[in-house]
Amino acid sequence: MIALLAVAGAVAVIGCTSVRPPKAPMDTFLHKSSCATDARTLLILLPGAYSEPDEFVREGYIPAIEEHRLAVDVLRVDAQLGYYTNGMAILKRFGQDVIAPARQKGYTSIWVTGISIGGLGALAYAALNPGQLDGIVAIAPYLGERATSLDIANAGGLMRWRAPTSTLPGDNAEQRMWAWLRRYGTQPGAPDMPQLYLGFGRDDRFAFSHELLAAVLPADHVFRTDGGHDWPEWRRLWQEILPVLPLPRCPSARG
């Protein structure tokens, strides 16, 4: 399982203050669409390691969705670092506490935006649960240890990298996630693969890994901005990505 991804490295790289233990069920915060009384699309927001769900409001993500008149409901999830350091509890909790209830409520399209380690959560969940997500927006995602990225780069890129064939859990779980990501190059448009949009800063500390993933995605699904790994870059990327996402829009106001 990808449940054994080496997130210990992420804690060291992202920085550690204190890690809250995971809760069951996860805390979630719903924003109903301002223009669709019965929205069928749900956009889920997963924060970075030490970000709080309310930062999506304070840093402009929720207001930007309203400004771009997306006819979607939005769900902020308190998926803090503790869900990733406790056996990747995020995978179980996200499925049980977020995705399953969303389907029960009648949402027919589910998109996930994940920042930093939240991007890892979205991608890891999608890799283990084919066909459950319709789209992912990965903003500066943590994609695992640099050693794996170096192996891929030394092989000549993701398309030339020889994916592991072992089914043993644990050691190569991270490689199996990359093997799943490789399908964006080998099987573009596969019905069980969510649409994937990637955004990152050119000086992001994870940009080396981001470029490896970007190489197998359509050019118009990849967004770069100046800067590193913080909210100013993530705000700019969000404003660039939102207009091109294939999400339902509110009807134009009539004068």
Features:
alpha/beta, Rossmann fold, 10 helices, 7 strands, 36% helix
Q: Helices, strands, pairings?
A:
Layout: H1 8-14, E1 28-31, E2 41-46, H2 55-58, H3 61-67, E3 73-77, H4 82-85, H5 89-104, E4 109-115, H6 117-128, E5 135-139, H7 146-154, H8 173-186, E6 195-201, H9 207-214, E7 222-225, H10 231-241
Parallel strand pairs: 2-3, 2-4, 4-5, 5-6, 6-7
Antiparallel strand pairs: 1-3
The strand order across the widest sheet is: 1-3-2-4-5-6-7
Number of domains: 1
Query: What is the average of the pLDDT values?
Result: 90
Separate helix tally: 10
CATH superfamily: Alpha/Beta hydrolase fold, catalytic domain
Query: Radius of gyration in whole Å, from Cα?
Result: 17 Å
The multimeric state of the shown protein is: single chain
Distance between the termini: 55 Å
Fill in the CATH topology.
Rossmann fold
**CATH C-level name:** Alpha Beta
Structural class: alpha/beta
Based on the coordinates given, report the CATH architecture: 3-Layer(aba) Sandwich
How are helices and strands ordered from N to C?
HEEHHEHHEHEHHEHEH
- Tell me the helix content: 25-40%
Q: How many beta-strand segments? A: 7
Largest sheet: 7 strands, mixed
